[in-house]
Amino acid sequence: MNNITIDLHNMPLTQAKREMQKLLKSCSTKTDQITVIHGYHNGDVILKYIRTQLKHPRIRQKIVSLNNGETLLLLN
């Protein structure tokens, strides 16, 4: 299992979107999971974006972590 972690919390939403698209476009085909740290104590704008709006052909499934500040993305 090849896992990448990206920390987006405290970023403006536009920057978080840009960073996620850049990562999804550039990550290796051997990467099968991305742990997205988006936080939730200081607002849930990025959380909502990751969990409901983020789309990409490589994303197979989104898993809500037991940690409310993280979402796991399983990739094809």
Helices and strands, in N-to-C order?
EHEHEE
Helix and strand composition category: alpha+beta
Q: Low-confidence parts lasting 5 or more residues at pLDDT below 50? A: none
Radius of gyration: 11 Å
Descriptive key words:
76 residues, alpha+beta, 29% strand
Write a short abstract of this structure.
The chain has 76 residues and is of the alpha+beta class.
Explain how this protein is built:
The chain has 76 residues and is of the alpha+beta class. It is built from two helices and four strands; from the N terminus they run βαβαββ. Strands 1-2-4-3 form a four-stranded mixed beta sheet, covered by helices on one side. A hairpin with a 5-residue loop joins strand 3 and strand 4. The longest helix has 14 residues. The mean pLDDT is 95.
Mind sketching the topology for me?
Layout: E1 3-7, H1 13-26, E2 33-37, H2 45-53, E3 59-64, E4 70-75
